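Researcher: Please translate sequence to structure tokens.
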Amino acid sequence: MSYRLSMKQKNWVVVLHVLSIVGWLGGAVCMLLLSRHMLYADQGEQLYYTLENMHLIDSTLIRYPALIALVTGIVLSLWTQWGIFKYYWILIKLVLTVSLIVFGITCMGQWLSELFRTADEMRLAALGDAKFLDTAYRLLGGAVANIGALVFMTAISYFKPLGKIRKTARKS
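Model: Translation complete:
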């Protein structure tokens, strides 16, 4: 028999899981709002410090909560009755969570660093640079994608659509 969390343990892991999602979602909303604020900066220092704050939010309210959500989600799947590969909604959440984390590391983090470096060098003139603006709009779109995916994952956690993953019948 595999290990199972007690009800009290499960509840604490669920609390940690939900809080991490709330932090991650809050960070994504902050990134969206600050991205918009960045695009309307009227001083070089405002642009630079907005990007500096976005970097801080990325480092604290997005990275760690995302990893905590992944770990607690896996713990809840493995050590409760749900299982990782029993239900479609759990598998969808796992794939989306890993995809968002990889996207955040490979794309959004790189875009934010690029914007930060450019703003440090050019200050307000960066807002006239086509490459800077293209990257800024990508970052803004990434924030929208994060928010959309997190809201979708929250919804499927409650509605649990598509049911169980059916095992194919084996021929003897």
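Researcher: Any highlights?
Model: The chain has four helices and no strands.
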